[in-house]
Design goal:
- By secondary structure, this protein is α/β, with parallel strands linked by helices.
- The chain is globular, with a radius of gyration of 20 Å.
- The protein folds into 2 domains: 2-243, Spore Coat Polysaccharide Biosynthesis Protein SpsA, Chain A (Alpha-Beta Complex), CATH 3.90.550; 248-332, no CATH class.
- The termini are far apart.
- Helix 7 crosses helix 9 and helix 8 runs antiparallel to helix 9.
- The protein has 9 helices and 10 strands.
- Helix 2 (76-79) links the parallel strand 3 and strand 4.
Protein backbone atom coordinates (compact mmCIF):
# COMPACT_ATOMS: atom_id res chain seq x y z
CA UNK A 1 0.00 0.00 0.00
CA UNK A 2 1.33 3.47 -0.89
CA UNK A 3 0.25 6.72 0.73
CA UNK A 4 0.90 10.39 -0.01
CA UNK A 5 -0.22 13.39 2.04
CA UNK A 6 -2.76 15.79 0.59
CA UNK A 7 -4.26 19.01 1.93
CA UNK A 8 -7.78 19.37 3.22
CA UNK A 9 -10.39 20.82 0.88
CA UNK A 10 -10.68 24.56 1.31
CA UNK A 11 -14.33 24.64 0.30
CA UNK A 12 -16.91 24.42 3.04
CA UNK A 13 -19.95 22.18 2.93
CA UNK A 14 -22.68 23.89 0.89
CA UNK A 15 -26.16 22.69 1.70
CA UNK A 16 -28.69 22.70 -1.11
CA UNK A 17 -30.49 25.73 0.26
CA UNK A 18 -27.30 27.83 0.22
CA UNK A 19 -27.20 28.18 -3.58
CA UNK A 20 -30.24 29.53 -5.50
CA UNK A 21 -31.74 27.32 -8.17
CA UNK A 22 -31.10 30.11 -10.72
CA UNK A 23 -27.35 29.55 -10.34
CA UNK A 24 -27.52 26.06 -11.84
CA UNK A 25 -27.69 27.14 -15.48
CA UNK A 26 -24.86 29.67 -15.06
CA UNK A 27 -22.30 27.06 -13.94
CA UNK A 28 -19.57 26.22 -16.45
CA UNK A 29 -19.58 22.61 -17.66
CA UNK A 30 -16.07 21.10 -17.70
CA UNK A 31 -14.76 18.59 -20.20
CA UNK A 32 -15.38 15.34 -18.35
CA UNK A 33 -16.00 12.20 -20.40
CA UNK A 34 -19.55 10.81 -20.43
CA UNK A 35 -20.35 9.19 -17.09
CA UNK A 36 -23.38 7.67 -15.36
CA UNK A 37 -24.27 8.28 -11.71
CA UNK A 38 -26.37 5.59 -10.02
CA UNK A 39 -28.44 6.30 -6.91
CA UNK A 40 -30.54 3.51 -5.39
CA UNK A 41 -33.35 4.12 -2.93
CA UNK A 42 -36.27 2.51 -1.13
CA UNK A 43 -39.09 4.45 0.56
CA UNK A 44 -36.97 7.56 1.22
CA UNK A 45 -38.24 9.98 -1.46
CA UNK A 46 -37.41 13.17 0.47
CA UNK A 47 -33.84 12.16 1.22
CA UNK A 48 -33.43 10.97 -2.36
CA UNK A 49 -34.77 14.20 -3.85
CA UNK A 50 -32.43 16.27 -1.67
CA UNK A 51 -29.46 14.10 -2.69
CA UNK A 52 -30.31 14.60 -6.36
CA UNK A 53 -30.70 18.35 -5.86
CA UNK A 54 -27.29 18.47 -4.19
CA UNK A 55 -25.69 16.64 -7.13
CA UNK A 56 -27.33 18.92 -9.70
CA UNK A 57 -26.04 22.02 -7.91
CA UNK A 58 -22.48 20.79 -8.34
CA UNK A 59 -19.87 22.52 -10.45
CA UNK A 60 -20.00 19.53 -12.82
CA UNK A 61 -22.72 16.95 -13.30
CA UNK A 62 -22.94 13.41 -14.72
CA UNK A 63 -24.10 12.83 -18.28
CA UNK A 64 -26.93 10.72 -16.90
CA UNK A 65 -28.29 10.21 -13.41
CA UNK A 66 -30.02 6.86 -12.93
CA UNK A 67 -32.48 6.48 -10.05
CA UNK A 68 -33.25 2.88 -9.11
CA UNK A 69 -36.33 3.07 -6.88
CA UNK A 70 -37.37 -0.07 -4.99
CA UNK A 71 -40.11 1.72 -3.04
CA UNK A 72 -43.46 0.01 -2.46
CA UNK A 73 -45.05 2.43 -4.93
CA UNK A 74 -43.48 4.65 -7.63
CA UNK A 75 -43.02 8.36 -6.95
CA UNK A 76 -44.30 10.46 -9.89
CA UNK A 77 -42.46 13.58 -8.69
CA UNK A 78 -39.14 11.73 -8.95
CA UNK A 79 -40.09 10.21 -12.28
CA UNK A 80 -40.72 13.67 -13.74
CA UNK A 81 -37.49 15.31 -12.53
CA UNK A 82 -35.59 17.44 -15.04
CA UNK A 83 -32.08 18.72 -14.43
CA UNK A 84 -31.95 21.93 -16.46
CA UNK A 85 -28.36 21.00 -17.28
CA UNK A 86 -26.56 18.52 -19.53
CA UNK A 87 -27.64 15.64 -17.31
CA UNK A 88 -30.39 13.23 -18.29
CA UNK A 89 -32.36 11.91 -15.33
CA UNK A 90 -33.67 8.36 -15.77
CA UNK A 91 -36.10 7.02 -13.16
CA UNK A 92 -36.45 3.23 -12.99
CA UNK A 93 -38.98 1.80 -10.54
CA UNK A 94 -38.62 -1.90 -9.81
CA UNK A 95 -40.42 -4.53 -7.75
CA UNK A 96 -37.08 -6.07 -6.74
CA UNK A 97 -35.62 -5.82 -3.24
CA UNK A 98 -32.06 -5.48 -2.01
CA UNK A 99 -29.44 -2.76 -2.45
CA UNK A 100 -26.99 -5.00 -4.33
CA UNK A 101 -29.70 -6.04 -6.79
CA UNK A 102 -30.60 -2.37 -7.29
CA UNK A 103 -26.99 -1.41 -7.93
CA UNK A 104 -26.57 -4.24 -10.43
CA UNK A 105 -29.75 -3.06 -12.15
CA UNK A 106 -28.30 0.44 -12.37
CA UNK A 107 -24.99 -0.84 -13.73
CA UNK A 108 -26.83 -2.83 -16.41
CA UNK A 109 -29.00 0.16 -17.34
CA UNK A 110 -26.16 2.69 -17.53
CA UNK A 111 -25.28 3.92 -21.02
CA UNK A 112 -21.70 4.95 -20.34
CA UNK A 113 -18.39 3.22 -19.58
CA UNK A 114 -17.62 5.28 -16.48
CA UNK A 115 -19.92 4.72 -13.51
CA UNK A 116 -20.29 6.44 -10.14
CA UNK A 117 -22.44 5.23 -7.26
CA UNK A 118 -23.64 7.06 -4.16
CA UNK A 119 -26.32 6.44 -1.54
CA UNK A 120 -29.63 8.29 -1.32
CA UNK A 121 -28.86 10.15 1.91
CA UNK A 122 -25.88 12.25 0.87
CA UNK A 123 -24.95 15.88 0.29
CA UNK A 124 -22.02 16.53 -2.02
CA UNK A 125 -19.38 19.26 -2.23
CA UNK A 126 -19.73 21.45 -5.33
CA UNK A 127 -16.48 20.03 -6.76
CA UNK A 128 -17.29 16.43 -5.77
CA UNK A 129 -18.29 14.86 -9.10
CA UNK A 130 -15.40 16.31 -11.08
CA UNK A 131 -12.92 15.34 -8.36
CA UNK A 132 -14.18 11.76 -8.21
CA UNK A 133 -14.17 11.18 -11.98
CA UNK A 134 -10.78 12.84 -12.49
CA UNK A 135 -9.31 10.68 -9.75
CA UNK A 136 -10.56 7.63 -11.66
CA UNK A 137 -9.19 8.89 -14.98
CA UNK A 138 -5.81 9.57 -13.40
CA UNK A 139 -5.71 6.10 -11.82
CA UNK A 140 -6.11 4.09 -15.02
CA UNK A 141 -8.55 1.43 -16.14
CA UNK A 142 -7.51 -1.15 -13.53
CA UNK A 143 -8.55 0.95 -10.56
CA UNK A 144 -11.69 1.75 -8.58
CA UNK A 145 -11.91 5.03 -6.71
CA UNK A 146 -13.59 5.81 -3.40
CA UNK A 147 -13.56 9.13 -1.56
CA UNK A 148 -13.99 10.94 1.71
CA UNK A 149 -17.30 10.58 3.57
CA UNK A 150 -17.94 13.03 6.42
CA UNK A 151 -20.90 13.04 8.82
CA UNK A 152 -23.32 15.93 8.98
CA UNK A 153 -24.56 17.32 12.28
CA UNK A 154 -27.34 15.18 13.80
CA UNK A 155 -30.70 15.93 12.19
CA UNK A 156 -32.64 14.25 15.01
CA UNK A 157 -31.90 13.75 18.73
CA UNK A 158 -29.12 11.19 19.05
CA UNK A 159 -28.70 11.14 15.27
CA UNK A 160 -25.79 9.10 13.95
CA UNK A 161 -24.07 8.02 10.75
CA UNK A 162 -23.39 4.26 10.42
CA UNK A 163 -20.12 4.74 8.54
CA UNK A 164 -17.84 7.55 7.45
CA UNK A 165 -14.29 7.94 6.09
CA UNK A 166 -12.64 11.17 7.27
CA UNK A 167 -9.00 10.57 6.30
CA UNK A 168 -7.27 13.37 4.37
CA UNK A 169 -4.47 11.06 3.17
CA UNK A 170 -4.56 9.68 -0.36
CA UNK A 171 -3.97 5.93 -0.44
CA UNK A 172 -3.48 3.19 -3.02
CA UNK A 173 -4.52 -0.33 -1.98
CA UNK A 174 -3.36 -3.50 -3.65
CA UNK A 175 -3.49 -7.18 -2.71
CA UNK A 176 -4.46 -8.43 0.75
CA UNK A 177 -4.54 -5.44 3.06
CA UNK A 178 -6.29 -6.92 6.12
CA UNK A 179 -9.20 -4.48 6.08
CA UNK A 180 -12.06 -3.19 3.91
CA UNK A 181 -11.66 0.19 2.25
CA UNK A 182 -14.21 0.43 -0.56
CA UNK A 183 -17.34 2.45 0.22
CA UNK A 184 -20.15 1.20 -2.02
CA UNK A 185 -22.05 4.41 -1.31
CA UNK A 186 -19.21 6.53 -2.69
CA UNK A 187 -17.28 5.03 -5.58
CA UNK A 188 -16.43 5.32 -9.26
CA UNK A 189 -15.29 2.58 -11.63
CA UNK A 190 -15.18 1.52 -15.24
CA UNK A 191 -18.10 -0.73 -16.10
CA UNK A 192 -15.65 -3.28 -17.54
CA UNK A 193 -14.08 -3.82 -14.11
CA UNK A 194 -17.40 -4.37 -12.36
CA UNK A 195 -18.50 -6.75 -15.10
CA UNK A 196 -15.22 -8.65 -14.85
CA UNK A 197 -15.70 -9.46 -11.15
CA UNK A 198 -19.46 -10.09 -11.40
CA UNK A 199 -20.84 -6.91 -9.86
CA UNK A 200 -22.36 -6.84 -6.38
CA UNK A 201 -23.23 -10.12 -4.63
CA UNK A 202 -27.00 -9.91 -4.25
CA UNK A 203 -26.96 -12.12 -1.16
CA UNK A 204 -25.29 -9.25 0.70
CA UNK A 205 -26.36 -5.68 1.38
CA UNK A 206 -29.37 -3.81 2.75
CA UNK A 207 -32.62 -5.66 2.04
CA UNK A 208 -30.91 -9.06 1.73
CA UNK A 209 -30.61 -11.90 4.26
CA UNK A 210 -27.13 -10.60 5.06
CA UNK A 211 -27.88 -6.87 5.18
CA UNK A 212 -24.42 -5.31 4.86
CA UNK A 213 -20.84 -5.87 3.61
CA UNK A 214 -21.79 -5.89 -0.08
CA UNK A 215 -19.09 -3.27 -0.69
CA UNK A 216 -16.59 -5.17 1.49
CA UNK A 217 -17.17 -8.22 -0.69
CA UNK A 218 -16.83 -6.29 -3.94
CA UNK A 219 -13.64 -4.62 -2.73
CA UNK A 220 -12.12 -7.96 -1.71
CA UNK A 221 -12.90 -9.54 -5.07
CA UNK A 222 -11.43 -6.55 -6.90
CA UNK A 223 -8.18 -6.74 -4.95
CA UNK A 224 -8.00 -10.52 -5.35
CA UNK A 225 -8.39 -10.05 -9.12
CA UNK A 226 -5.41 -7.70 -9.22
CA UNK A 227 -7.23 -4.37 -9.39
CA UNK A 228 -6.37 -1.38 -7.21
CA UNK A 229 -8.60 0.66 -4.91
CA UNK A 230 -7.72 4.35 -4.78
CA UNK A 231 -8.81 6.52 -1.86
CA UNK A 232 -9.14 10.09 -3.17
CA UNK A 233 -9.82 12.47 -0.25
CA UNK A 234 -10.37 15.42 -2.58
CA UNK A 235 -13.74 13.88 -3.54
CA UNK A 236 -15.89 14.83 -0.55
CA UNK A 237 -19.48 14.08 0.28
CA UNK A 238 -21.51 14.12 3.50
CA UNK A 239 -23.49 11.25 4.99
CA UNK A 240 -26.58 12.64 6.69
CA UNK A 241 -27.17 11.79 10.35
CA UNK A 242 -30.93 11.28 10.01
CA UNK A 243 -31.12 7.97 11.90
CA UNK A 244 -32.27 8.34 15.52
CA UNK A 245 -30.62 6.80 18.56
CA UNK A 246 -33.32 4.13 18.71
CA UNK A 247 -32.00 2.70 15.42
CA UNK A 248 -28.39 2.37 16.53
CA UNK A 249 -28.45 -1.20 17.85
CA UNK A 250 -30.46 -2.46 14.89
CA UNK A 251 -27.88 -0.91 12.57
CA UNK A 252 -25.02 -2.58 14.45
CA UNK A 253 -26.80 -5.95 14.26
CA UNK A 254 -27.36 -5.57 10.51
CA UNK A 255 -23.74 -4.59 9.90
CA UNK A 256 -22.52 -7.52 11.98
CA UNK A 257 -24.81 -10.03 10.31
CA UNK A 258 -23.75 -8.86 6.86
CA UNK A 259 -20.10 -8.97 7.86
CA UNK A 260 -20.55 -12.49 9.20
CA UNK A 261 -21.98 -13.63 5.87
CA UNK A 262 -19.09 -11.97 4.05
CA UNK A 263 -16.50 -13.65 6.26
CA UNK A 264 -18.18 -17.04 5.98
CA UNK A 265 -18.28 -16.78 2.17
CA UNK A 266 -14.47 -17.01 2.08
CA UNK A 267 -13.72 -19.26 5.07
CA UNK A 268 -11.52 -22.18 4.01
CA UNK A 269 -9.13 -24.51 5.77
CA UNK A 270 -6.85 -24.11 2.74
CA UNK A 271 -6.70 -20.31 3.10
CA UNK A 272 -6.94 -18.87 6.62
CA UNK A 273 -6.80 -15.22 5.60
CA UNK A 274 -10.50 -14.46 6.13
CA UNK A 275 -10.67 -16.54 9.32
CA UNK A 276 -7.84 -14.48 10.81
CA UNK A 277 -9.62 -11.29 9.80
CA UNK A 278 -12.88 -12.40 11.40
CA UNK A 279 -11.17 -13.44 14.63
CA UNK A 280 -9.38 -10.11 14.90
CA UNK A 281 -12.59 -8.18 14.13
CA UNK A 282 -14.20 -9.89 17.11
CA UNK A 283 -11.29 -10.00 19.54
CA UNK A 284 -10.18 -6.39 19.28
CA UNK A 285 -13.72 -5.34 20.20
CA UNK A 286 -13.71 -7.74 23.15
CA UNK A 287 -10.36 -6.38 24.35
CA UNK A 288 -11.45 -2.75 24.21
CA UNK A 289 -14.87 -3.32 25.79
CA UNK A 290 -13.82 -2.77 29.46
CA UNK A 291 -12.39 0.64 28.55
CA UNK A 292 -15.01 1.68 26.05
CA UNK A 293 -17.91 0.88 28.38
CA UNK A 294 -16.82 3.80 30.59
CA UNK A 295 -16.02 6.20 27.77
CA UNK A 296 -18.90 5.48 25.38
CA UNK A 297 -21.44 2.96 26.73
CA UNK A 298 -23.63 3.03 23.62
CA UNK A 299 -20.70 2.24 21.36
CA UNK A 300 -19.53 -0.51 23.71
CA UNK A 301 -22.94 -2.16 23.68
CA UNK A 302 -23.05 -1.68 19.93
CA UNK A 303 -19.81 -3.66 19.67
CA UNK A 304 -21.40 -6.58 21.50
CA UNK A 305 -24.44 -6.48 19.21
CA UNK A 306 -22.11 -6.32 16.19
CA UNK A 307 -20.18 -9.38 17.41
CA UNK A 308 -23.43 -11.28 17.91
CA UNK A 309 -24.41 -10.29 14.39
CA UNK A 310 -21.11 -11.64 13.00
CA UNK A 311 -21.64 -14.98 14.73
CA UNK A 312 -25.25 -15.14 13.54
CA UNK A 313 -24.33 -14.22 9.98
CA UNK A 314 -21.45 -16.69 9.83
CA UNK A 315 -23.61 -19.52 11.10
CA UNK A 316 -26.53 -18.64 8.84
CA UNK A 317 -24.34 -18.44 5.73
CA UNK A 318 -22.68 -21.78 6.46
CA UNK A 319 -26.06 -23.43 7.12
CA UNK A 320 -27.54 -21.99 3.92
CA UNK A 321 -24.62 -23.25 1.84
CA UNK A 322 -24.86 -26.67 3.49
CA UNK A 323 -28.55 -26.92 2.54
CA UNK A 324 -27.77 -25.87 -1.04
CA UNK A 325 -25.01 -28.46 -1.25
CA UNK A 326 -27.26 -31.16 0.21
CA UNK A 327 -30.04 -30.26 -2.23
CA UNK A 328 -27.65 -30.50 -5.18
CA UNK A 329 -26.44 -33.90 -3.99
CA UNK A 330 -30.01 -35.18 -3.65
CA UNK A 331 -30.86 -33.90 -7.13
CA UNK A 332 -28.00 -35.92 -8.64
CA UNK A 333 -29.23 -39.20 -7.17
Amino acid sequence: MRMTRTSRSSSGFVQSSDRPMTDINSLTEASLPPASLIICSRDRPKLLAETIESVLRGDEVPTELIIIDQSDVPHPALASLKSGRSCEIRYLWTHSAGLSRARNTGIAAARHAILAIIDDDMFVEPAWFGSLIRALLNSGERAVVTGRVLPTAPEVPGGFVPTFMPSEVRAVYEGRIGTDVLAGGHMAAYRSILDAVGGFDERLGAGADFPAADDNDLGFRLLEAGYRIIYAPEAVLYHRAWRGKGQYMAARWSYGRGKGGYYSKYLSYKDLYMLRRMVWDILHRVFRFPFLVWLDPRRACGDLVYIAGILSGTTRWAWTQLKISHGATEAQR
